[in-house]
Backbone:
């Protein structure tokens, strides 16, 4: 991926799965004689239970605001929202409803996920 970066969006309970995937990518790239682009950007997003414990209502969760904040803060270069040169974000979330907010946000930025 040359100078482009890659990222994983995940929830805390899925951290081991992300580590296993990265190990698999690294092994596969060695076997194929290619480079995979260095260390990814790690984006931990809250799950709905954590949001509820933090006082975020179900209504606020439905619009994906907290998920989008996590993505935007990790992928922006500065306060003007100039985006890092991201090739792809692997979205690894257990709940489909959580995943759709993140993918919609990435699509709007033209970032593959």
Residues:
């Amino acid at each position: 991926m040359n100078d482009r970066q890659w990222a994983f969006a995940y929830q805390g309970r899925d951290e081991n799965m992300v580590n296993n995937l990265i190990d698999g990518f690294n092994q596969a790239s060695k076997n194929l004689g290619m480079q995979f682009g260095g260390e990814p950007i790690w984006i931990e997003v809250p799950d709905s239970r954590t949001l509820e414990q933090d006082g975020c209502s179900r209504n606020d969760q439905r619009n994906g605001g907290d998920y989008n904040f996590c993505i935007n803060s990790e992928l922006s270069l500065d306060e003007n929202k100039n985006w890092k040169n991201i090739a792809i974000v692997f979205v690894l979330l257990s709940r489909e409803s959580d995943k759709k907010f993140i993918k919609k946000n990435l699509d709007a930025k033209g970032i593959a996920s």
Notes: DSSP finds five helices and three strands in the chain.
